[in-house]
Design a protein that fits this description.
The chain is α/β, with parallel strands linked by helices. The protein contains 13 helices and 14 strands. It is globular. Bound molecules: ligand T4K.
Length: 403
């Protein structure tokens, strides 16, 4: 459909958007406000604000309990955690990652002059395609970073078998996958280590924050040193390091978020089921499924728009939703390989990434979490339904004009 024939935004209520206030993807989930303020008051009283304080230790302990992982080393954010993990594992040369991820996965390598080599995804799982991954291994490859996109674990078994065959190390970007499991084992326990994100927009948030989780004692000691300038005690620097520390106030927020973890999963699941029931039967729209016996956090509602069936394509639907103040997102369009500096460095990368290109043009993420009610979801789905119906009418008239 060209721009000329595109139906106008619905703006049903006298030209005003259906939602007076924007409905965001990534609106933070917040635990008990009084408990947060209590903890903040406590840390102010103690005058211990950062540098491995008691709240950080408690938060790390809780993450270990939930994931069953031996070590949790919190960080100021997941991007720095990725950078530190990559360095600690001595990755260099080339490291294979999916292009279909948040750009932080690629930047964490490029920032350290390691070349991210972009592998394609499986069109159905949306995660790293192991077959494609193996074809990209060269003598310069030192590692693989799998991404558990939207909290659905990548094909860990195949990725690790390939890594073993080629003597490569594997770590995982598990930014979306806290609280999820694979084959009954909690995410956090796979590869050399896994990186979690506790950014404001994540399932569990600590305002900003991240963590490296690992069962490897040596690696845990190393990343602990690296996040604090390499200090092993007063005036004793024994390693190259940076400042990757999580402040106490962030750990306080994270701890209270954890107390509401089950409630948040419940709300996410309720919202997901509501979207599923409202969108059932809408031609060309498929809701990404979470069907699995494993644990999921249901934090992302991802819809695939098939333009050969749907009257509107993904971009047109997102535009419609924005006009109604529903700020749906095109995560992770256009794929890292089409972002700078990778686009300039690897101008032909798209030729090897057909599934990434396909899905990056088809997927949209819809609002969920504590701030989204069942009624909101009904309205969002009504907007989608009305926009598609309107587009179908326009299409029909255009086809009549042609005949
Ligand atoms: N690996 C993966 C696979 C990731 O997805 C991410 C981050 C990382 C690594 C790195 O983790 P961190 O270093 O961030 O810990 C957002 C987040 O900033 C980012 O953490 C997240 N992934 C990514 C998927 O989403 P943007 O650029 O989309 O953020 P922005 O500013 O557009 O915010 C998203 C939406 O959330 C907006 O509609 C507004 C809403 N929002 C945001 C914040 C911060 C709020 O309502 N309140 C808020 O406080 O990246």
């Amino acid at each position: 459909m060209n721009t000329e024939n595109k139906p106008a935004p619905l703006a049903i209520m006298g030209g005003k958007p259906r939602f007076a206030e924007p409905l965001h993807v990534g609106r933070p989930n917040v635990g008990d406000k009084h408990r947060i303020l209590e903890r903040i008051e406590g840390l102010i009283e103690r005058r211990w604000f950062t540098n491995d304080g008691p709240q950080v230790r408690e938060f790390e302990q809780k993450i270990c309990e939930i994931t069953g992982v031996k070590h949790c080393v919190t960080m100021c954010n997941a991007t720095v955690a990725l950078e530190i993990a990559i360095r600690a594992l001595d990755f260099r040369g080339e490291v294979i990652i999916p292009s279909y991820t948040f750009v932080a996965t690629a930047h964490a390598l490029q920032w350290q002059e390691i070349t991210p080599v972009f592998a394609d995804i499986d069109a159905s799982t949306l995660n790293l395609d192991p077959g494609c991954l193996e074809r990209l291994i060269t003598p310069r490859t030192t590692g693989i970073i799998g991404v558990h996109l939207w909290g659905r674990p990548c094909n860990i078994k195949d990725v690790e078998a390939i890594a073993k065959r080629h003597s490569l190390k594997v770590m995982y970007d598990a930014a979306h996958a806290f609280g999820c499991s694979d084959g009954g084992r909690m995410i956090g326990n796979f590869g050399e280590c896994e990186v979690l994100s506790f950014h404001a927009t994540k399932f569990i948030n600590s305002f900003e924050g991240g963590a490296i989780v690992t069962n490897n004692d040596e690696l845990a000691n190393k990343v602990r040193l690296m996040r604090n300038f390499g200090f092993a005690g007063f005036d004793r620097v024994i390693y190259l390091g940076t400042n990757g520390k999580m402040p106490e106030v962030c750990a306080a927020m994270g701890l209270v978020s954890l107390e509401s973890m089950d409630d948040i999963v419940g709300i996410n699941l309720r919202n997901y089921e509501e979207y599923r029931s409202q969108l059932r039967g809408v031609a060309g729209l498929t809701l990404m499924d979470y069907t699995s016996t494993d644990k999921r956090n249901y934090h992302y509602v991802v819809v695939q728009v098939d333009p050969s069936v749907s009257a509107l394509n993904r971009d047109e639907l997102v535009e419609m939703l924005h006009a109604e103040n529903v700020l749906a997102r095109k995560y992770f369009w256009p794929g890292c390989h089409r972002m700078q500096p990778y686009r300039a460095l690897f101008p032909n990368a798209h030729l090897l990434l057909p599934n990434t290109e396909l899905r990056a043009a088809q997927l949209m993420v819809l609002p969920t979490g504590q701030c989204v009610s069942k009624d909101d979801i009904k309205t969002i789905c009504d907007i989608i339904g009305a926009a598609l119906a309107q587009a179908n009418v326009v299409k029909h008239f255009l086809s009549l004009r042609k005949t």
